Amino acid sequence: MPDGQGGGLKTRRSGELLAQQPVLTMSAPPTPASPPVPATVVTPPAPTVKPMAAGAIAAIVGALVAVGVAVFVATRGGGEAEKPPEQPPPVEAKAVEPPKPETKVEPPKPPTSCPDGMAFVTGKNFFMGTESEKPVLALARPLHKVEIRPFCIDIYEVTTEKYEACSDKGECKRAYRDAFWPQGASKRADWDKAKAAYSTLCNAGNEERKQHPINCVTWAQADEYCRVHGGRLPSEAEFEFAARGSDGRVFPWGDGAPSPEHLNACGTECVAWRKQKGLPPVEPMYPADDKFVGTAPVGSFPAARPRTACSTSSATCSSGRRTASSATRPPRASRPRRCPATTG
Q1: What gap in Å lies between CA 115 and CA 282, rounded to an integer?
Q2: What number of CA atoms fall less than 13 Å from residue 293's CA on the CB side?
């Protein structure tokens, strides 16, 4: 081993400086007659391996783990590959029907002519109700504008004879022969006395009143009669328009005060009758006798005929399909229940 190298040998291989560790040999202490010591054999230096980076080592380990997992999955279940999951059967697409167009219901066309016994009322705007502050007219307030379509309305009320003909055929319910209204705040004795008195004014079954308007029927009975004959009850607005028109007059004949020539109301004959029956006195509408305590034959007051064409006391049925309206629907009436007739 050359001197001055600190026990090490340096060589240069492939342009790199490789370090070679010294190989030390030891010989036994000389003994007498010892053979000569053989020459020392020098082993070539082993190449130096650069240590690998930590990231590279982790990548190699990850690859080995992945390979192991793949082998495990491939050989699981006796070495057979796992079957893919079954796919659900395809769903048949249903044909979507296009939306059907909406059916428009056209309102009935207004009449241009009317059947016999009916008057044609031209539709217009009018102010319905009143501005009067009288307590008796409280339900008619406030005054408001209403549009009326053309319609037909009976010129005269339904007579007792015509209504009884309908009930005799089983088409209409029989008219009542006694008056009825709710007792309200009246004492029972006073209520019974008044019902007994007004029941004498019911026209059904009275041969002398065949041409009087039918009375003592309910709203439903009047409505049924009109429907049986192809009509309907007029609405409240139609009835008022037929009587008053669009010029705002107070009564069918105008603004003049009522009189026995205009209508059958409570005059002096009414005051006398109430006194006879023991009923409380009332203030008459006019200080004269109209000759009828109860109803009068239809058409008895031509002076009250309104300009719109129906008769004074009221009309009867209306021909049409619209629903009739009424402010009140008493169960029975002591006065005639008119069924104004309209078409429209």
Answers
A1: 41
A2: 16
